[in-house]
Amino acid sequence: MKQVFGVFGDPISHSLSPAMHNAAFSALGMDCIYHAFRVKPEKLEKAILGAEAMGFGGLNLTVPLKEVALKLSCIKPDPLAKKIGAVNTIVFEETGEIRGYNTDGLGAKQALQEAAVEIKGSKIVVAGAGGAARAINFQLAADGADITIVNRTEERAIALAKDISAAALPGKVEGRGLSELKDLLQNANVLINTTTLGMHPNIDSTIATADNLHSGLTVFDIVYNPLETRLLREAKASGAKTVSGVSMLVYQGAEAFRLWTGIDPPVELMKKTVLEALKA
After folding, report:
1. How far apart are CA 116 and CA 137, in angstroms?
2. Ligand-binding site membership of 149 (annotated)
3. Could you tell me the fold of the domain covering 105-243?
4. What is the pLDDT of residues 129-167, one digit of tens each?
5. Residue 152, annotated as binding a ligand
């Protein structure tokens, strides 16, 4: 009988994780299948316990469940996920423990490294203060970046910056309101969008336009559906380097795959599968 893996979220129809992971399972000859499930925040604990009872191999969590998961008594988060305050990967241990991890930060780091971005010492502006933003900012601060978090609700950006600063990581972190984004970008090296602006079906939304950007900037949008968001189109028009959310999706997914199975997945095949699905 096939072992089932899955991703929980709401909404979830946009997710390409099933295509990516099923391609990896197939290539490795593993008798496994990965599905997407719509789960509302208030039903998350029941859904996780149900998956564990039915013998699921593991789970991913996406918007808006990552921060909710950390508050559930059934999950034992690893130290990094606990610091971040969000869980995106669930592992069902043979001991009966349900462990929570966060692979988003590592996925973002590897996506930037793939684009030849030097993180240490870079001035990075991160838009958003949700679960993905927490993971990414903790990772970037650990790697010595100079970070400014901007958010529509300034208090959330400030609170997140304080949480990260309290961890005594090498990088500097501060929080500002989204209204300051234009001015902050003038001296920035990297802009990362962790909000859902521009995600299908609201593809005309963007946090910044070409006149706010510049050719010395790297613009990284973690939204991967559509493949080229409006933000990335605006970035290209300004001469900025662009990084697609596909890279982060693949790298964080590959790390989750390793946590579930102990096996290194075929990363290039996973990326190819995602790109083909998006183009289709």
Report:
1. 18
2. no
3. Rossmann fold (3.40.50)
4. 988 899 999 999 999 999 999 999 999 999 999 999 999
5. yes
